[in-house]
Every structure is written in structure tokens, then in C-alpha cells.
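Below is how a single chain appears once it has passed through the pipeline. First comes the sequence as given, then the structure the pipeline wrote out for it. We keep one example in the README because the format questions we get most often are answered faster by looking than by reading.
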Amino acid sequence: FWVVPAVEVKIEVVIPEKERNKEEMSPNGKASPLIYKVNGTARHYHLEEHPIASNPYHNPKDMVEASVCHVKDLENGQMREVDLGCGKALLIKESGEFHAVGHKCPHYGAPLVKGVLSKGRVRCPWHGACFNIGTGDIEDFPGLDSLPRFQVKIEKEKVYIRASKQALQTQRRTKMMAKCISLSNYNLSSTNVLIIGAGAAGLVCAETLRQEGFSDRIVMCTMDRHLPYDRPKLSKSMDSHPEQIALRPKEFFCTYDIEVLTEMQVAAVDVKSKIAVFKDGFKMEYNKLLIATGNMPKTLSCKGREIENVFNIRTPEDANRVVKLATSKNVVIVGASFLGMEVAAYLAERAHSVSLVELEHVPFKKFFGERVGRAVMKMFENNRVKFYMQTEVSELREQEGKLKEVVLKSGKILRADVCVVGVGAVPATGFLKQSGINIDSKGFIVVNKMMQTNIPGVFAAGDAVTFPLALRNNKKVNVPHWQMAHMHGRIAALNMLAHGTEISTVPYLWTAMFGKSIRYAGHGEGFDDVVIQGDLDELKFVAFYTKSDEVVAVASINYDPIVSKVAEVLAAGRTIRKRDVDTVIFLSFRTGDMSWLTGKGS
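Resulting structure:
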């Protein structure tokens, strides 16, 4: 599954010298990877199915049982973090029944006891992932793994939990997945499912297919050098190496027969013949296709844009290089986008100076509103970030081939050793223009609620699509959020298998800057008012975004888990009216009472 530099034209089994004595084999002890070369590109494929691993939690020595509370210690709708001696669990009581699952969100480790319990699931307070309290299964994203589920029993009015020590320590569970029945029977240039793009949408699609028992061939292809990784960390944790932010290790893809072609770009798709044509001329037939190519960053159009040390952050190498060059140097960031602001925050303590150039007069004005935008701007200014607003870059100047100065249209000249461009992105769909797949005027792929395009068997997901958002009366929207890409991939996979599943998730995003996290749920495009509770100056507030009389989105800093609570309200089909913000809703958030969530309507 791993693309390597081309070294051979013939097909051969390759066993590295240092591994020959170890008889490197697949987990079933039968076969080694095949490397083969087509049109100058070598690829690895694993050609054996793998047995389903035995459950590692069946060993009695690995089990622990403990009394954790009295049955009357918890009321319905309450959660408690309990200690079993060698690890903790989350004990939940709902509708008179007790449940026990892992206590940490598998995504970034948030304490779920501080999350939101509603109608059989718990929602993470940080990033909104949802887990079924009866099974532990992940039901909304971000993240890939589910929670471990533990046995609960009641004896003499005491609650006991029986759990695996390993599960208590890992606090995550990968759902059971199918394997490919026999890859060796396939033509190497054909696949049942082809996934173009190896981001969150593509990976979740592949994993969901395997979770649902799909045992045919799956091939993912990506222009990236790396297996799927946690892309939001490119701007939030810029010195992370690829292996540190990998969503799954290499072994995972071998184990579950998900083949990945790296540094492979699709140049065209023939939907009539069901063939994808790669840039190097290689062709691959498919039965079902998912297009999840994401966005491409916009570049500057001014003089000097090709000068060395001017970056778009697209890969881990880009981010690592920027950090190295920026340390104790002068940095100019163009664009107060999420990426631009996160990069500015990350570099503020490392660089000699950080300057940010933006066309608007307040950062995030269109997304968070002017008042929140000004509060965020003040936080940046207090951390030595200098803003140059309502202006653009007119020229980049060099000295000995490297960036020296950034010239603004206002006439200001900024010293610059490094420039990071964060002025937005465009959908990476140019290769589809002659395909017959419906593309809108902005280049987005148009899909329905099942992530289907206008072409049978062709699905699309992630940042490159517009889809009907249930929250906004099925208005076609583009939601370039990490969480939404996960859900798109899952819905696409389920409908490749003819499940008829429609997307209904509530958008959820987050950004982190200077130790402060902004959570956001809903879709506030076109909001006409912002109702703010709390203190903007202290950066402890919640902002409700309204359109006419209806709350369409919410954002907060230091007000957890209010955004997750609003997300649950919206997910339940409830309408939050503007008049309710100061009274019933806010009081219920303060008391933690979620009883008014029952039912639908306003």
C-alpha cells in the first residue's frame, strides 16, 4: 500500500536485506508485500487476507472488578468518573439503567464526564464527538475510535464494573472490521472501491466499509507523501512530524487491506467507463468512486510570489520548515483566516516578530462577528502580534534570492524572513471539469443528502462538496470542517452499500490560540445579530448567532460544555429562539438541566 521510489520494472517480491533472516511475513504468516511498477511508479500491495484478531480482553488475568457506588448515588441523567484501581471509567445512569464506558474521548482525551448526556449518547465537551452509552460506538465525529464498553452489575444495591485493564489504560476501541476476501484474485489495475483523497473523509469511508462487513478491494490514492494524518495540527502544532500526527499506523492499513497509493494524482475520471486516469498515465477501473480531494490553498498574485521562504501550509514538511525558519526571525502572515491566525499564535513566542496582514478591519468578522473578532484581535495584540488591517500585499522583495520585505498597498514596508499565506482555498476539483460530474460555479461538487453526485456510483465528501444541511432547511452549503469531513465519509460508505442513510449532523469546529479554545457549532452564514453572554474582555463568554428569530450557531471561550449542549439541542431537531437565550436556555445550561431536550419543535 506504500508508494516508494521506482527501482524495478519487473514484478518481484522484495525482502530487505536486514529482514531476510526474519522471514518478514503478513500477520497470518503466509505472504510478503508485492512491489510492482507501472509507468515508472512503484507501488506496494498486500496480497493476502488477514484473520480476525482474537479479542485481547478475554484473558481473565486482564480483568478487574470493583464496586464503584451505591445505586442511589446517581440520579437519572447523571454521569460520574469512577476509579477501578488500575484505571477509570465513566458510569452513566439513564432511564433507570447503568452503563459504563471509557471516560476519555479517544480524539484528544477530553474528560467525557464534563460533556453532555442526552438520549442514549454522550457528547464530548471539546470537539463534539458523540458516543453511544450502551455500545460505546462513535456516532458523530471527529475521531476514529469508539469507547470501550464495560460490564455493569447490581448486587445488594451496589454498582459493580467489570473491565479489562488494557481497555482502562487505552480508553479506546477500534470497531471490528472485515478483511478483503482474496486480494490475490484481483487485477492490479482494477478495484471495487476507489477513493481519491486520503484525508478524514476518505479514511472514514474506507474504515466504515470494512466495519460494515465489506470484503472487496478498497484503494485510496493521494497526492501526499504520507498516509492519512491529522491535518488541523499543521497550523495548531506546527513542529509535529508526520508519524506523530498519523491517523492510523502503517500496520493498520495492512491488517484491514486498505491499500494506499501515495504521491499519486488523478488527472481525469471517465465516468462512463468507470476509469480513473492518473497523471503518470496509469489507469484504474472502479465500481464505486469517492471523490474527497479537499481544497487547494490560494496563492498570492503579487510580484515576488515565487521568492524563497514564501509558504502555503499544505504538508507537515511545510509546517516544520516554517517553524525552523521563523525561529527568532521576522514573520509576515497574509490573511486572518483560521490557518493564518493559528500560525500567528503558534509562532508568536518563537519568532522575533509576527505581523499579520488582512483586508478586513477585524479578524473573523464574517464568521464570529465584529465584537468577538475584536476580542480575539486584542488577545493577539497582547501577545505581540502586530496587525495591518484593511490593506493587501503589493510586492514581495528579495535579497540574494530569499525574502527580505513585504510591501503593502498602504505603503508600509515590513521586514520579513518568512511569509505564510493564508488567504483561503479553492476546491481541488479541476480534474473533473470534463467528467460530467455536476460542479457548481465555485468549483464545488454538488451532492445530495447521501453524498451521491449526479452520476450513479460516484460519491463525493469533505471540503470539496456542497450538500443539503438539515439544520438550515436543506440549504446547499459548503462546510470545510474536520468533523464534517468524517461524517461525509461515513455517509458515503453507508450509501455505497445501499443503506439509504441521509446526513443530519450538526457542524462543529474548534480553533486553539494562545491556550484558548474557541468552540463553534451550527452554521451561522448570513447571521443578522449576535447575542453575547459573559465577558468578552476576560475571554469567558458564549455568543449566539441568530438569523431573524432563530439561533443558527453558537461559539464560546471558557464556557464548556455549552457549545456541545447547543449542538445536542440542534441535533434533536429543537429550534432555539432568540428570546430564549437570556432566560430558559441559559438557565438550563447553568443548572445542567437537559430535560427540556425531550421531543422536537420549539
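The chain has four domains: 60-170, 176-298+426-506, 310-423, 515-598.

See the next section for the split statistics.
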